[in-house]
Design a protein that fits this description.
Helix content is 49%, strand content 16%. It is α/β, with parallel strands linked by helices and 813 residues long. The strands form four sheets. It has an eight-stranded mixed beta sheet with strand order 14-21-20-15-19-16-18-17, with helices on both faces. Strands 3-2-10-5-6-7 form a six-stranded antiparallel beta sheet, with no helix packed on it. It has a four-stranded antiparallel beta sheet with strand order 11-12-1-13.
Length: 813
């Protein structure tokens, strides 16, 4: 066979898969292993559950007043337009519930840093809510971590011992009276009776543990779970898992109470701060409002105004009046000038002075009237008398005097009118200036009035908010309304017993399965006939089952025996007939192997017995001149034998042959004394002479040879061998050596080589054992043997303990 073909055989052998059928076969074969493994794992699971605390789940539902998500109409909803209260974001409230601030208050109120337990058989019993005693720590430090045992004695006494501070044990023991202050190595305490104290509490040993507050808070913050009950509602579900039902309920209920208290306190703090702020702002704005009023008053006083609109109307009216008066005076001045010019005109001296011309001075008008009357009188007299008339002359003189008097009055009138006109002009200009300054004054007044109005509105707004804030303080409603108080099932949520037992069952099945799988995967030895057929093409004579452990003798084949081994050797004997070559005598059969321990001596002895039972004269020759295994077992290691003949110490073969007690047709020739040169003796012609002498006396000569791969003796023996039987033991020979055996066959290095598989365990019919024999046990061999008796069947049955130990009786050389 080529090296490539040899490698292919090895690769095919190594690539064999561990199929589902093989797994099921292994489970059937090793069901005791699985039963014991499952039993042990279930027992371990049972005791594991005994050591675990039952964890219970408690949850409560609260409704957060959040108008965004349908929290319902709260008590303050009616004042929504006033801005009282405000909206609560439910998503934010989840973080508030899980905050360390709230949990710190819960831990302090419930005293969760201190735990009380009583030692039990498998686990300690938690006494939360049922402890007969209670510890009050003096000068409590949040960072303290210690533990100790308290034993309740008679007469109200207690004994404190086993002190631990930060996991370091402190020696000491203290006795005290319940209710007294006791000083210990870990601190000063007062231990009082609790409500659960009774006479049954006497004698109990209670283990008290004080944990660091920050760690306890962190632990419960992780345990607490807050989630939305619905996406469209503002309801929250608060849950926690704990080994104590009462503690879990108390934590949730207290957390809700603390949340509401904190919410109310926050509202009150805001309201109080708001009230303080409003009061301060009212005081400030009131002062500012007074300053604005004073500023308006000062501005009006300085500008001599009361109401700008009214003042402006009056000024406009006054300006119109001034214009009319000025026009009237101007007219009067012109009339006065006309009359004066009239009076001083000589041509007009004898004419009457115009009267009712618009001069308002009554004296001037009287003088003009008197003058005109006098002139008319004179002219009347002058018409009746001459100019020389004294009366006329007197009247003329009087007229001249009156003329001068009128001119002087008119001059005075003109001066008076001019002064009046000047005054009116000044008054008019002053009024015009006042009208011109009205917009800026109005602007200043409006600006000041605007500040006044703003401060008035702000003052009124703050007054209104003060009343609203007082109303808010009076309402102070809870932010969370409890829908369901903390409750839950009385069945624990952990540990999940069914799951743990299921896992234990799986592990129990997996352990032997993994062991079997690893054993098969890591096993590189020959596992059965299938390995031989996959790796070699050598003729296969048969396989020999493993001996029962109670079988001590090497010779197991006998008359009337129907056990599996006997039937196997009979099959081998039958198969030998197929090995005979026509017209060639085949008497010498050599047994060899790859290494020691393959069972050559066992196979050769029983094979010889099989031939003897078939009425064949058989001799078994111990050709292992080095170890002399067969001779030693017969306690004939020093008896004359093969080495004696080969070394020419004896030429009489009959003297060297020994009869056996096994069968009259079977003799034995021992190895003889161990020679210093076994290989040289076997190379001598004396070996051929010995074989010829034995052929004359026997039908079969069975040579119990040496391992082929260890010494050269086996190859030397090949020259006298007709058939070479290569014994391969299951679980001993490495499968990687099978190509070497195949090479021996292909290259004819050994005469008529064939293979016997030894040590086959018929209870293993899994991977690599699919050709198991069952002579007399109903397993059915490929050649049609399937008979036996019930006694043999009973002998083949193994106890459960034997299977657990997996004691495989090895057929020794």
């Amino acid at each position: 066979m080529s090296e490539q073909n040899t490698n292919n055989i090895v690769d095919n052998n190594e690539q064999q898969e561990f199929t589902l059928r093989d797994i099921l076969e292994q489970i059937r074969i090793h069901w005791q292993w699985f039963a014991v493994s499952v039993f042990v794992c279930l027992v371990c699971a049972f005791f594991y559950l005994k050591t675990q605390y039952n964890v219970y789940d408690r949850s409560a539902t609260v409704l957060i007043k959040d108008e965004k998500k349908g929290g319902g109409m709260s008590e303050s909803a009616a004042f929504a337009e006033l801005g009282i209260g405000g909206k609560s974001n439910v998503d934010n409230e989840i973080f508030v519930f899980k905050s360390k601030k709230l949990m710190t208050e819960v831990v302090n109120r419930l005293g969760l840093c201190t735990t009380y337990r009583i030692k039990g058989t498998f686990k300690d019993e938690d006494l939360y809510g049922y402890s007969p005693i209670k510890i009050d720590i003096i000068d409590n430090n949040d960072t303290q971590a210690f533990s100790f045992d308290v034993k309740i004695l008679d007469d109200g006494k207690i004994r404190l011992s086993h002190f631990f501070m930060y996991q370091d044990e402190i020696s000491g023991e203290t006795e005290s009276v319940i209710g007294d202050t006791v000083m210990t190595p870990v601190g000063t305490f007062v231990i009082n009776k609790d409500l659960s104290f009774s006479n049954e509490s006497i004698g109990k040993n209670i283990h008290i543990t004080q944990s660091e507050q920050s760690k306890v808070i962190e632990s419960y913050c992780k345990k607490i779970n807050v989630s939305l009950s619905s996406k469209t509602a503002s309801a929250l579900t608060i849950s926690i898992q704990d080994i104590s039902v009462k503690r879990a309920e108390n934590i949730i209920n207290t957390l809700i109470d603390v949340y509401n208290e904190e919410a109310i306190n926050d509202k009150n703090i805001v309201a109080q701060n708001t009230e303080k702020f409003i009061a301060e702002r009212l005081k400030i704005i009131k002062g500012e409002l007074g300053n604005v009023d004073t500023q308006i008053e000062s501005y009006k006083r300085a500008n001599e105004i009361t109401d700008i609109s009214s003042e402006l109307n009056i000024s406009l009216q006054a300006t119109s009046d001034y214009k009319k008066q000025n026009l009237s005076i101007d007219n009067e001045i012109e009339v006065a000038k006309f009359i004066r010019n009239y009076l001083v005109d000589p041509a007009k001296a004898s004419e009457l002075i115009p009267s009712n011309t618009g001069i308002t001075d009554q004296g001037v008008n009287e003088l003009i009237s008197t003058y005109n009357a006098t002139l008319l009188k004179r002219d009347k007299l002058l018409a009746n008398s001459g100019s020389k008339n004294p009366v006329v002359q007197d009247l003329s003189n009087e007229l001249m005097a009156q003329n001068k008097s009128i001119i002087r009055s008119i001059d005075n009138l003109l001066v008076s009118l001019r002064v009046q006109r000047s005054n009116l002009k000044n008054q008019e200009n002053m009024t015009k200036r006042r009208i011109a300054s009205a917009p800026s004054q109005e602007k200043d007044v409006v600006s000041i009035s605007r500040d006044q109005k703003i401060k008035e509105e702000l003052y009124l707004y703050l007054l209104n908010k003060r009343e609203e804030n007082a109303l808010t303080l009076a309402i102070t409603e809870n932010s969370a309304r409890i829908i369901d108080v903390a409750n839950g099932s009385n069945l624990p949520v952990a540990p999940k017993k069914s799951l743990i037992f299921l896992v234990a069952l799986i592990i129990g099945c997996a352990i032997p399965m993994i062991y079997i799988y690893l054993r098969e995967v890591l096993n590189t030895t020959v596992r059965g006939r299938k390995d031989l057929e996959d790796a070699t093409t050598i003729p296969f004579l048969g396989e020999v089952p493993l001996k029962d452990k109670d079988v001590i003798e090497d010779l197991v084949v006998g008359e009337n025996k129907r056990d599996g081994i006997s039937e196997a050797f009979r099959i081998i004997r039958s198969n030998m007939d197929f090995m005979k070559v026509k017209d060639k005598e085949q008497k010498v059969i050599t047994f060899t192997s790859n290494s020691t321990g393959a069972g050559k001596s066992f196979i050769s002895l029983n094979f010889a017995m099989t031939q003897a039972l078939a009425a064949k004269k058989v001799i078994i020759v111990d050709m292992d001149l080095r170890k002399r295994t067969m001779s030693k077992r017969a306690k004939k290691a020093g008896a004359p034998g093969v080495s004696t003949f080969l070394s020419q110490r004896s030429d009489n073969v009959d003297e060297l042959i020994h009869k056996t007690t096994y069968h009259e047709n079977m003799d034995v020739l021992y190895a003889g004394p161990m020679p210093p040169n076994p290989a040289e003796l076997l190379l001598s012609e004396r070996l051929d002479v010995l074989m010829n002498e034995l052929k004359k006396r026997y039908d079969y000569i069975i040579l119990d040879g040496v391992p082929y791969s260890m010494v050269a003796d086996a190859k030397i023996l090949n020259r006298v061998s007709d058939i070479t039987i290569y014994v391969i033991r299951v679980g001993l020979m490495d499968r990687r050596m099978l190509p070497m055996v195949e090479k021996l066959y292909k290259e004819n290095e050994l005469n008529n080589i064939c293979v016997i598989l030894n040590g086959v365990d018929h209870t293993k019919t899994g991977y690599g054992y699919g050709y198991g024999y069952g002579y007399g046990y109903g397993y059915g061999y490929g050649y049609g043997y399937g008979y036996g008796n019930e006694d043999e069947k009973k002998k083949r049955k193994k106890s459960l303990l034997d299977n657990i130990k997996n004691v495989n009786i090895i057929n020794k050389d």
